[in-house]
Fold this protein.
Amino acid sequence: MRQIRLEAEEEAVDERLDKYLGSVLPDQSRSWLQKLIKKGAVRVNGKAVKASCRLEAEDQIEIDLQEPEELPIPAEDIPLDILYEDADLLIVNKPKGMVVHPAAGHRTGTLVNAVLYHCRGQLSGINGVLRPGIVHRIDRDTTGALVVCKNDRAHVHVAEQLKEHTITRRYVAVVAGVLREDEGTVDAPIGRHPADRKRMAAGVKNGKRAVTHYRVLRRMKGHTLIECRLETGRTHQIRVHMASIHHPILGDTVYGASKDPYHLEGQALHARVLGLVHPVTGAYIEVEAPVPEYMQALLEKLEKM
């Protein structure tokens, strides 16, 4: 167990304790911090408090970061498409249909199950028992590059880059309709949909700032191949943003058409480029995940229309 001591800044006045800790400790999930608070492992001015505790300037905060529990998730010998690997990082090309970390209904067959086997105990434990080494994630039906951290030092360093929006993340997607402009930006906050908590929505009250830059790569009859560059990384960001400008991603039956005439089994979205500063060497590394076969076949079909 290690202890962290913080002093609440002026900007934190009247902010909830759990929200504040989530902002100053971006490598820790808010749910994990709430569990620590509930256990009494977080104290304000020497006293255990609730997650909803409102902070005052110069409050002294002590956090006992407990060692990660033994992971009740089995390691599985699942082949990985490795784009880069060294003693600190693993970057993989995630296939379509693979869930990143275990959850209800998906305890096996996830990326975490696969990396537990591949890394054999060499994974960061910062994000708790279900997400060892996982700093960010991509949706189950989104393919492409995803980084896994093998130790806590790498995890903290990469998480900081994510917080500062300095990681390069470029996606390719096939969207409905033909975009007139060659490039553009969607700058609209994203938050939970007010009527459907399983979905996200753009422009909602109390949403978090979200920015997606896009440019046209190819125009086809009734469709467009685009590249999207993430400035922020909100849940379903590209899917929500493109739907908000009336160009939903093909195959996305959540934010686009309810039927998938091309039988894509999920959105035609691929994380093609991932670049970051190495947590140990300081060198910039960038990898590219090849466009998957299903998307190549889709583009060929659309070109013939």
In short: The longest strand covers residues 211-220. The radius of gyration is 21 Å. Residues 161 and 167 are 6 Å apart (CA to CA).
